From TrEMBL:
Keywords recorded for this protein, A-Z: Branched-chain amino acid catabolism, NAD, Oxidoreductase
Domain Glutamate/phenylalanine/leucine/valine/L-tryptophan dehydrogenase C-terminal per the UniProt entry, residue ranges: 143-353
Protein name: Valine dehydrogenase
Pathway as given in its UniProt record: Amino-acid degradation; L-valine degradation
Matches recorded under SUPFAM superfamilies: Aminoacid dehydrogenase-like, N-terminal domain, NAD(P)-binding Rossmann-fold domains
Length: 365
């Protein structure tokens, strides 16, 4: 994982760093904000070059969760857990060590008394969260669809589809994706489900993954395999980054041949300034933290707000509305979609901070 500088302000409610008492592994939990509701965010197990990189990533990701939830008015705040796999330490967590770690994290989360709900993320699954649920009720994303897909994966893909529909309407006057060409990069849980949804709409999909073994899954889905080398610069209507973040640099933007970027990866832009590069290149970018909000929306709908699957799915329409508004305001104001999306989230957060007319703190849910 590349080294990152702390681009965000240190405006978190708090964070903790603990050594798991069973696993001995370092665990970082950051709570950025509980202003709009309990902090919700995934548990990431990933390789980092240094503990500092892991801490910075956890702080950034937890802040991103606050903005994501605020932008789509999900009634939750932002938090994150990172378990760094560091040089010299274990590089895979399986069997007893994994179970020990999951119980360690569950215990730490439980001690936070519901201020933070832990959910799946890169390196963890809904099965892991189910195991943690034995230890604490403060978990999210443990539900699955009738065919066994994790609720967050399902919701994220469905939300990206909504963001794509809004982007298509903005660019081509119709939300329909029939006949549109889409390149999906990263054929994991979200990439696969998104591909199925796009094919069902009649889009033409090419997909790729760093893992060549994913080729057969791509072809079985009905999409066409694309080689990863050069995939970002393929000529296409929409590029859908569904692997890891940080892929879009100023340099890459100069070589892109797509009209739009809409995907699930978190922190897609290597730096915020890349948003300006995209605007100048006339490439429409659906801000990642809005486009990929469907997972937390769908799962928290089911698990926190006790909605039915159909009602939870319906909530995801707000991703389409928010994306449409962001792209429209961005075009009208000649500013980046990132700036507009940040402003949208900040307005929601500021409104929640405003003193309530009767002098009480506003409700947090
Ligand atoms: P996943 O681990 O199931 O899939 C990621 C896929 O990307 C894997 O198949 C992996 O081999 C591939 N990959 C990794 N590095 C790559 C690279 N450099 N180039 C091409 N492919 C690469 O993860 P997922 O759940 O499908 O999530 C995908 C992205 O969406 C992640 O960035 C994740 O943070 C983000 N996201 C996921 C959710 C969710 O609920 N699942 C929610 C919000 C955001």
């Amino acid at each position: 994982m590349p080294s990152r500088t702390l681009e965000t302000t240190l405006d978190h409610e708090g964070f903790l760093v603990r050594q798991g008492r069973r696993s001995g592994l370092p665990v970082i939990i950051a709570i950025h904000s509980t202003r709009l509701g309990p902090a919700v965010g995934g548990m990431r197990i990933a390789r980092y070059d240094s503990p500092a990189d892991a801490l910075v990533d956890c702080l950034r990701l937890s802040r991103g969760m606050t903005y994501k939830a605020a932008a789509v008015r999900n009634g939750t705040g932002g938090g994150k857990t990172v378990v760094p796999l560091l040089p010299g330490g274990p590089q895979r967590l399986d069997g007893q060590l994994r179970e020990a770690l999951l119980l360690d994290v569950a215990e730490l989360v439980h001690d936070l008394n519901g201020a933070y709900y832990v959910a799946p993320d890169v390196g963890t699954s809904s099965a892991d969260i189910q195991l943690m649920r034995r230890r604490t009720p403060y978990v999210g994303g443990y539900s699955a669809t009738a065919d066994g897909l994790g609720a967050t994966t399902f919701g994220t893909a469905a939300g990206v589809e909504h963001a794509m529909n809004a982007t298509a309407a903005h660019l081509w006057g119709t939300p329909q994706l029939r006949g549109r060409d889409v390149v999906v990069i990263g054929f994991g849980g979200v990439g696969h489900e998104l591909t199925k949804r796009l094919l069902a709409q009649g889009a033409h999909v090419r997909a790729t993954d760093i893992d060549p073994k994913r080729r057969s899954a791509v072809e079985t889905s009905g999409a066409q395999w694309a080689e990863l080398d050069g995939a970002y610069t393929l000529q296409t209507d929409i590029l859908a980054p569904c692997a890891l973040g940080g892929a879009f640099t100023s340099e890459l933007v100069g070589s892109l041949r797509c009209r739009a970027i809409v995907g699930s990866a978190n922190n897609q832009l290597a730096h915020d300034t890349v948003a300006q590069d995209l605007t100048q290149a006339r490439i429409t970018w659906a801000p990642d933290f809005v486009a990929n909000a469907g997972g937390v929306m769908y799962a928290s709908g089911l698990e926190l707000h006790q909605l039915t699957p159909a009602q939870s799915l319906q909530r995801l329409a707000s991703i389409e509305e928010a994306t449409a508004r962001i792209l429209e305001d961005s075009a009208n104001e000649a500013t980046t979609s990132l700036a507009v999306a940040n402003r949208l989230a900040e307005n929601v957060l500021t409104a929640a901070r405003a003193p309530h007319p009767n002098g009480n703190t506003p409700s947090t849910t």
